[in-house]
Amino acid sequence: MSERVDAVIVGAGVMGAMTAWRLALRGRSVVLLEQYALLHAHGSSHGQTRIMRVAYRDPNYTSLAGESLGLWRDLESASNEQLLEQSGQLDHGEPEVIDVIEAGLLRSGWAAQRLMPDAATERWPGMLFDRAVVFSPDGGRIFADRSVAAAIRTAEQLGVVAHDMTPVERIERTARGVRVHSASGSWDAGVVVLCAGPWLPELARDLVPLPPLTITQQQPVHFGIRPGFHFPSFVHHPGGTGPLGFGAYGLESPGEGVKVGIENTIREVTPATRTYEEDPVVTEAAREYAELWLPGADTSQHTSVTCLFTETADSHFVLERHGPIIICSPCSGHGFKFAPAIGERAARLALGDPSVPPLPSA
């Protein structure tokens, strides 16, 4: 016997959690299914921190980040938790790239402070800076695990039923929408929202057309912080990347040190073939970067973590409705900051709203 609900959401990472929250706010009956334990470390949403930035070369992402900021504050109020810290964010590197970022911030009404590299190092002595620098005081960091937990908890308080350790075995279309099957039960719904990240190709391959997707294993590395130093969130643009590309990123992560990610150290995998083991080549690349650019980092101390990115060819996002099935991923490795706004759009799509604004695209 199947239970009837308004919507089933598959995947309780940040996108699924936010979509559940936004649907529950509208009084809809929602079931949220997760194949692992809630807040697991197998996908893309786990970890202490993520960068929050409104600074993008693409003005559509700057606009989406602004929309997300308001919704982050709404979730903070509803959950009584600090989820976002606007401690500022830096972009530095190729002058032409920094020019575009600065102009986009100012054109959109955001503050931007241009700095010479030496002046930036005087202000943030734990870092050295490349050629051109712009500081965005509206950026900062998001507390990732805390945010996913807050969204799920707030959604449950509004009536969402979350089932962990419940992998979806099959989804079938019905006359009234869909039926979602798991080993522990089935649910009939008008719509299913697939927020399954790297598991999306396997889950949706016979249901809807998908764009080409690449799943990669990432390995950010945390280094110790020398006494007296602190780090803002930063993105380094050495040049030669596309409008959504970068060379390296980093931020201070409480209790972990300074987190460093290098773009060219990724490895293509599947959820079945990924490993959780530290790759010494990736660690060494991060160490070399930190020793060159982050004098405040203690590279004799490090820890690392792996995660999965699910990326489109152009690094944009996928949010589409195909009849009763909504695809709400992948987010190409830079979606966490936008999750409340994407969850809001997914909820509106689930309700059949024809006026949902599209996400940025090529």
From TrEMBL:
A GO MF label: sarcosine oxidase activity
Keyword entries, A-Z: FAD, Flavoprotein, Oxidoreductase
UniProt keyword Flavoprotein present: yes
Protein name per its UniProtKB record: Unannotated protein
One Pfam short name: DAO
Xref: InterPro entries: FAD-dep_OxRdtase (IPR006076), FAD/NAD-bd_sf (IPR036188), MTOX (IPR045170)
Domain FAD dependent oxidoreductase: from-to ranges: 6-349
Cofactors, names only: FAD
SUPFAM superfamilies recorded: FAD-linked reductases, C-terminal domain (SSF54373), FAD/NAD(P)-binding domain (SSF51905)
Keyword Oxidoreductase (UniProt): yes
